[in-house]
Design brief:
The protein is an alpha+beta fold. It has helices at about 1-5, 30-35, 40-55, 115-130, 135-150, 155-170, 200-205, 220-230, 235-250, 265-285; strands at about 10-15, 60-65, 80-85, 90, 100-105, 110-115, 135, 175-180, 185, 210, 215-220, 290.
Length: about 290
């Protein structure tokens, strides 16, 4: 593959998932061997990584061969990125004092252990913003403000460089995502008429799974499916509620109060149950990256 790239004036840049290129994600013994085998040839090292992982499919990024690549990544580059993470502390709670080390784990399995107050605050801010990425400068400002409110001393002069290094470690571990451009989706429905993609609406009409704006195929329960198919940008939340009430009355789906087997049929009761439920459903769809930012 690499030879064919070279013939066509191209070269290997890296993998779309940066964490798969980092040998330190293996055990120390394996990482040592990989570094010895691929000390002077990144292609050889990554091929051996594929062997160790039994990896059959790659997400390869390529570029023109005339571009001079800088393989040594400086943490300062993180300051130009937008960052996202939904990694959560293993213990469910992360004490902010630097004496307590906390392990954060991503759904992908990646993990990172840290003790610094500002790093823990960064993971908290990113989790609260998920799935929308946060610019590094904004993230740093929020962390410093939160540290001051919590009365935890943080050296503001060195905090930026330190946090950039911590987040680079998180990126390498597969715990922090990064991008260079803003996303088109929002965490919450906001005002106006909530909207999703035509593809998600079609999939929700046809079944119980739909593709969000992150390219993930998400399972839906009945009320999320019914709501998602209505989000074409022409309906306010109140109009969506009216449409859901009508769907229940037509028998398109059944509404059962909690711990009760009897379906609700009276419109007043249907509306009383669906109203609060719809608010939660729209928030959930936002957290699942289905809502277009307006």
């Amino acid at each position: 593959f690499a030879k064919k790239l070279a013939v066509n004036g191209l070269q290997y840049l890296g993998d779309a998932d940066f964490s798969t290129m980092v040998s330190t994600n293996f055990s120390p013994e394996v990482a040592k061997t990989l570094n010895e085998l691929g000390a002077h040839d990144i292609l050889q090292m990554e091929q051996y990584m594929d062997f160790v992982r039994c990896r059959y499919f790659r997400k390869t990024l390529i570029c023109h061969s005339g571009i001079r690549l800088q393989r040594a990544i400086d943490a300062s580059r993180v300051k130009d990125l937008l960052l996202a993470s939904r990694a959560l502390p293993d213990e469910g709670h992360a004490p902010l004092d630097p004496g307590t080390r906390v392990t954060y784990r991503a759904q992908s399995g990646g993990k990172i252990t840290c003790g610094a107050t500002i790093t823990k605050l960064a993971f908290r801010v990113l989790e609260e913003a998920w799935p929308v990425p946060v610019a590094f400068g904004e993230l740093l400002a929020q962390c410093l403000a939160e540290a001051a409110r919590a009365d935890h001393a943080v050296d503001g002069a060195s905090a930026g460089d330190f946090l950039a290094g911590e987040l680079l470690t998180g990126i390498a571990a597969g715990v922090v995502e990064w991008r260079t451009t803003p996303v088109r989706y929002a965490r919450s429905p906001g005002g106006g008429a909530p909207t999703t993609s035509p593809l998600a609406r079609l999939q929700a009409t046809q079944g119980y799974k739909a593709t969000n704006f992150r390219g993930e195929y998400v399972a839906l329960d009945e009320i999320h499916r019914q709501t998602l198919r209505l989000l074409d940008g022409s309906r306010s939340p109140s109009a969506i509620l009216d449409a859901l009430v009508s769907a229940v009355k037509r028998g398109e789906f059944v509404l059962n109060p909690e711990n009760e087997k009897t379906a609700v049929t009276e419109e007043t009761e249907i509306r009383g149950l669906l109203g609060p439920a719809l608010e939660k459903v729209l928030l959930n769809l936002g957290k699942q990256a289905f809502l277009i930012a307006t």
